[in-house]
């Protein structure tokens, strides 16, 4: 009698542990990486390095948030990296003429939003497949960035502007602060506002949403505009950190951003995705990159590892969903 | 007769739901066995266990006296069990023949893996002929009408020449002649000593094809009897747990002022020159064959299809309806035919679906008012007695009838005044049907105008105040309910002379 009781108890503990692991699998996996890298590299576990990781992750996270919004509506945005470059160089060019840094920021945000708006209209009104519309924009924005700069990087020396990428407040880097603001606002919008709830509805079923009186087209246009706007935010953070605006900035960033969203549980079929998940996705990618750098792994091999991690992470998420 | 199948003490638990509770079920060879029960009684769950789609929590299954474990759908097929599911499971982007042969495509050359298209074309043609279907094996399934898609699903299930055929509401989207054809096929199978499990919410057809009936209620097997020994009253009482006195609780109400008027309406989906009006407290029934433009009238009024000509008046004021959003603003609600694709967002929970069209209105400066949403949802879950473990339950997992009630709840809480019902009781159990009718009457009493498209003649005749009949996009008949006769309506539906008095 006593023994059987005991065994159900351990069973209980085991299943509790299992539940806990599933619930906090994000943290558990990150913890495993952190412990492993701490053992492998003496430089990994330090305040400076962590700050460094956070700083590097912030741009990918901001773009990941942009993709999360779009992916929830069952869309995709391939143009975020190119929009980032175009918004960055226009801000850079404006600063070079001696312009005010706040206006420069607004210009970057506006350019980003306009590109996103065009994406949205192409998807919602012209009924182009999101993949195609944003693939076109990816090429257009990149091309424009190269045209207006003749292919040269724009140097930025406005100290107020560069503070946004290189400065600290209470020794927290500005990119991290901006990423946290984006995290809080975007997560609030998705979870607490009617707009957020409608995005999930649209992703779940366009037709049912439309027949419930939701203005699906308008909301989709707005979603792509948000994505463009966030690309503008990322542009400011990145160019301010680099003290320059290269027209080739952000190449391939769209893929990392998609990876972050998808690792974080967003479904390309639409209707699923969370900002905290995307944060986790961006962190996993960031920590692995950083660790591999410290370990001296070649950047070629890094690509292989990152690819494997993406597949593994999404697979794990599938398993977790099954268990819920 | 030999027992083909025995299921003993079957239970199935979902988180928070006991879908089946110690159920016994057995099947003879050459028998058509009806499985009946309210929405959510566990019919689909029972057959999904049999088909390997779900795993039983407890119990045993015997085929020809041999104990079997049916771990997956492939195993079930190998054991000779084929299913036609309630939810169509076809690849819409593929042809009819590809769908029918999906998973068992014959090869003309093994080494190259080339498909023997001639063979599947011929065999598909034979099956389609047998079922009396007039589309070609090359037709894209996505282009077919829902009824035809249903027939493809049936053809697919017949292909393996199964010993046990399970049909979960195969008739819900078929018209009468198609149903007759299906019944002929079922009787042929029966003569060939095959066994069929048949689920349907259309009472009258149970006696037409069935031999035996098993009735589930709340996951428990209530009774199994020969259909010769039980009448409709007995079945409904066993299903619902109480007697249903009045199947059509229609009342004569005071008809109020005009609420909706449509003049010379034509849409891009083929309806032509439609004019009618509906008053407060009135139910206008629209009858006609599948594809005659009934649904399209509703869609045009609701702004879901494009209006090309004509005018719509709400309370005598001319209105422009360019989108469903406009329609909702004018207090119009659409309860669509295809509730899974068009009525609900299946991945959202019950609460979000109920409040879907008023989320924005309930919100305060953009922020959702969850408290209010919960109150409203609770109110309508109670009012319509929607069976769900809680309001955060995924709509996808509700039974069909309860899904329909959620769609209704959405428009009730949007305080709609014009209700467009498209096949309101399709796939809904007898008890819930009466509840839906009572709700309609309740709405009418409160001054709503109701349009009801239906393929069920008794429903049209008993629930409507006036009846329109459609044929090829045009109105071919108008009747007052008291003068309407089924044969006159059918005559108009076939395109016969305009008859009846206005
Ligand atoms: N995957 C699931 N997870 C949780 N609950 C489920 C699941 N599938 C079904 N249920 C629940 O089990 C019960 C039985 O559902 P089932 O689909 O078998 O009903 P049904 O008799 O086929 O009803 P209907 O006539 O409406 O089709 C319902 O309460 C339903 O909500
Ligand atoms: Mg069912």
Which helices and strands occur, and which strands form pairs?
The complex is a heterodimer of chains A (324) and B (502).
Chain A: H1 2-23, H2 25-40, H3 47-72, H4 80-96, H5 101-124, H6 130-149, E1 154-155, H7 159-166, E2 168-169, E3 172-173, H8 174-192, H9 194-204, H10 206-210, H11 216-242, E4 244-245, H12 253-263, H13 275-294, H14 299-323
Antiparallel strand pairs in A: 1-4, 2-3
Chain B: E1 3-14, E2 17-28, E3 32-37, H1 43-50, E4 58-63, E5 66-68, H2 73-78, E6 81-84, H3 96-100, E7 107-109, E8 114-115, H4 117-130, H5 146-159, E9 164-168, H6 176-191, E10 195-199, H7 203-209, E11 212-217, E12 220-226, H8 232-240, E13 258-267, E14 274-279, E15 283-288, H9 294-301, E16 307-314, E17 317-319, H10 324-329, E18 332-335, H11 339-343, H12 350-354, H13 359-362, H14 370-383, H15 400-413, E19 418-422, H16 430-445, E20 449-453, H17 457-463, E21 466-471, E22 474-480, H18 486-493
Parallel strand pairs in B: 3-10, 3-11, 6-9, 9-10, 15-20, 15-21, 18-19, 19-20
Antiparallel strand pairs in B: 1-2, 1-4, 4-5, 7-8, 11-12, 13-14, 13-16, 16-17, 21-22
Adenosine-5'-triphosphate binds at residues 14, 17, 19, 37, 39-45, 86, 387, 397-401, 429 of chain B.
Subcellular location (chain A): Cell membrane
GO cellular component, one term (chain A): plasma membrane
Keywords (chain A): Cell membrane, Membrane, Transmembrane, Transmembrane helix
List the helices and strands of chain A in order: HHHHHHEHEEHHHHEHHH
| Class by alpha and beta content of chain A | mainly alpha
Beta-strand residue fraction of chain B: 25-35%
Question: Could you say which overall geometry of chain B the principal axes of the C-alpha atoms support?
Answer: globular
Number of helices of chain A: 14
How does the major sheet of chain B shape up?
6 strands, mixed
Strand count of chain B: 22
Question: What share of residues of chain A is helical?
Answer: over 70%
- At the third CATH level, what is the topology name of chain A? ABC transporter involved in vitamin B12 uptake, BtuC
CATH superfamily of the largest domain in chain B: P-loop containing nucleotide triphosphate hydrolases
What is the CATH C level class of chain A, in words? Mainly Alpha
Round the mean pLDDT of chain A to the nearest integer and report it.
Answer: 88
* Envelope shape of chain A: globular
Q: Could you name the CATH class of the largest domain in chain B?
A: Alpha Beta
Oligomer, anyone?
heterodimer
Please give the radius of gyration of chain B in angstroms. 24 Å
Number of domains of chain B: 3
């Amino acid at each position: 009698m006593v023994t059987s009781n005991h065994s159900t108890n351990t069973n209980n503990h085991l299943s509790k542990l299992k539940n806990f692991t599933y619930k906090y699998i994000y943290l558990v996996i990150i913890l495993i990486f952190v412990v492993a890298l701490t053992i492998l590299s003496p430089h990994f576990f330090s305040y400076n390095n962590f700050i460094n990781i956070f700083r590097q992750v912030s741009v990918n996270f901001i773009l990941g948030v942009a993709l999360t919004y779009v992916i929830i509506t069952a869309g995709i945005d391939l143009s975020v990296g190119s929009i980032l470059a175009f918004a960055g160089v226009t801000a850079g060019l404006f600063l070079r003429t001696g312009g005010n840094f706040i206006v420069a920021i607004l210009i970057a945000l506006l350019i980003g939003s306009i590109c996103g708006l065009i994406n949205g209209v192409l998807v919602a009104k012209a009924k182009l497949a999101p993949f195609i519309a944003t693939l076109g924009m990816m090429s257009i924005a990149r091309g424009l960035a190269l045209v207006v700069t003749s292919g040269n990087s724009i140097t930025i020396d406005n100290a107020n502007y560069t503070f946004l990428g290189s400065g600290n407040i209470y020794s927290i880097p500005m990119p991290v602060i901006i990423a946290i603001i984006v995290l809080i606002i975007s997560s609030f919008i998705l979870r607490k506002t009617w707009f957020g709830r409608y995005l999930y509805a649209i992703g779940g079923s366009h037709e049912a949403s439309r027949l419930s009186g939701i203005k699906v087209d308008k909301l989709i246009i707005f979603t792509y505009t948000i994505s463009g706007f966030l690309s503008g935010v990322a542009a400011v953070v990145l160019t301010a950190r680099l003290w320059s605006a290269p027209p080739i900035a952000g190449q391939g960033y769209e893929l990392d951003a998609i990876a972050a969203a998808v690792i974080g549980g967003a479904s390309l079929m639409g209707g699923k995705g969370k900002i905290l998940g995307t944060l986790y996705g961006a962190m996993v990618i960031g920590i692995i990159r950083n660790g591999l750098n410290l370990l001296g792994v070649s950047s070629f091999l890094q690509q292989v590892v990152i690819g494997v991690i993406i597949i593994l992470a999404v697979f794990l998420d599938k398993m977790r969903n099954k268990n819920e | 007769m030999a027992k083909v199948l025995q299921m003993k003490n079957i239970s199935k638990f979902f988180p928070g739901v006991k879908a089946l509770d110690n159920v016994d079920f057995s099947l003879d060879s050459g028998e058509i066995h009806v499985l009946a029960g309210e929405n959510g009684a566990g019919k689909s769950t029972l057959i999904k266990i049999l088909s390997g789609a779900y795993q039983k929590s407890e119990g045993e299954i015997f085929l020809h006296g041999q104990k079997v474990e049916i771990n997956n759908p492939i195993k079930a097929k190998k054991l000779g069990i084929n299913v036609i599911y309630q939810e169509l499971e076809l690849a819409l982007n593929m042809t009819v023949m590809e769908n029918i042969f999906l998973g068992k495509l014959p090869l003309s050359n093994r080494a190259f893996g080339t498909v023997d298209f001639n063979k599947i074309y011929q065999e598909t043609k034979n099956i389609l002929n047998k079922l009396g279907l007039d589309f070609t094996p090359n037709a894209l399934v996505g282009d077919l009408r829902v009824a035809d898609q249903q027939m493809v699903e049936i053809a697919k299930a017949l292909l393996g020449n199964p010993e046990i055929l399970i049909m979960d509401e195969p008739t819900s989207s078929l018209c009468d002649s198609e149903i007759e054809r299906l019944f002929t096929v079922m009787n042929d199978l029966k003569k060939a000593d095959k066994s069929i499990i048949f689920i349907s919410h259309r009472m009258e057809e149970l006696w037409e094809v069935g031999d035996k009936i098993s009735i589930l209620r709340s996951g428990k097997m209530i009774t199994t009897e020969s259909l010769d020994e039980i009448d409709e009253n007995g079945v409904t009482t066993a299903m619902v747990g109480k007697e249903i006195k009045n199947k059509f609780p229609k009342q004569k109400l005071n008809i109020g002022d005009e609420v909706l008027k449509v003049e010379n309406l034509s849409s891009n989906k083929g309806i032509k020159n439609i004019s009618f009006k509906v008053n407060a407290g009135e139910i206008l029934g629209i009858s006609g064959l599948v594809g005659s433009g009934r649904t399209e009238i509703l869609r045009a009024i609701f702004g879901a299809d494009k209006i090309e000509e004509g005018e719509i008046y709400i309370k005598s004021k001319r209105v422009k309806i360019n989108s469903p959003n406009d329609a909702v603003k004018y207090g119009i609600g659409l309860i669509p035919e295809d509730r899974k694709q068009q009525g609900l967002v299946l991945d959202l929970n019950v609460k979000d679906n109920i409040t879907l069209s008023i989320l924005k209105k309930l919100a305060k400066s953009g922020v959702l008012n969850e408290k209010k949403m919960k109150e409203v949802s609770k109110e309508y879950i109670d009012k319509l007695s929607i069976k769900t473990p809680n309001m955060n339950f995924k709509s996808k997992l509700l039974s069909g009838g309860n899904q329909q009630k959620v769609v209704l709840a959405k428009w009730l809480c949007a305080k709609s005044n014009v209700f467009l019902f498209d096949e309101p009781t399709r796939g809904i159990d007898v008890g819930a049907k009466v509840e839906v009718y009572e709700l309609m009457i309740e709405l009418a009493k409160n001054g709503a105008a109701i349009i009801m498209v239906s393929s069920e003649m008794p429903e049209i005749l008993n629930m409507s105040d006036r009846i329109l009949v459609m044929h090829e996009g045009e109105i071919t008949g108008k009747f007052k309910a008291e003068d309407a006769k089924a044969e006159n309506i059918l005559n108009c539906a076939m395109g016969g002379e305009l008859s009846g008095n206005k």
